[in-house]
Write a structure and sequence with these properties.
A hairpin with a 5-residue loop joins strand 2 and strand 3. Helix 4 packs across helix 5. This protein is an alpha+beta fold. A 6-stranded antiparallel beta sheet has the order 2-3-4-1-5-6.
């Protein structure tokens, strides 16, 4: 749902900070660190010696978890990061109101609110593969 647009570097204690958001997950290699689970809420940190780190957060919206979203926003504000919607690239201010609105208005948010209506909307306005994140 969310990617980080800044800062170019994470602070040295980012692992501890992310551990306060979600439990440490199992990564697939040294360049990818995970917090959370594959089938639920998850934060990925992709690192490279030649590129700034890339952070991607995905939230399972089947269950609404305001405390989790607050912990995530605390992390974002604490490291001075920017949030971007993965679907659109639009910046999302790291406030509770703006972030929860972005979650609810995302494709996943619209689906869990009313699956039938969301699927009907796809018949009228199909999502092209180029629109996918």
């Amino acid at each position: 749902m969310a990617g980080f647009g800044c800062p170019p570097r994470l602070p040295p204690d980012y692992r501890q900070r992310l551990g306060e958001v979600l439990g440490r997950g199992h990564g697939w290699g040294t360049d990818l660190e995970l917090w959370g689970t594959d089938d639920g809420d998850r934060i990925d940190v992709l690192t490279s010696a030649s590129e700034p780190p890339e952070v991607l957060a995905r939230f399972d919206l089947r269950d609404w978890k305001p405390q989790l979203y607050e912990r995530f926003l605390t992390f974002v504000r604490g490291v001075g990061a920017c949030i971007q919607e993965a679907e659109t690239g639009v910046a999302v201010p790291p406030t509770t109101e703006d972030f929860t609105r972005a979650l609810r208005e995302s494709r996943a948010g619209r689906f869990v609110q009313d699956p039938e209506a969301y699927l009907r909307s796809l018949q009228d306005n199909p999502v092209r593969m180029s629109d996918e994140p």
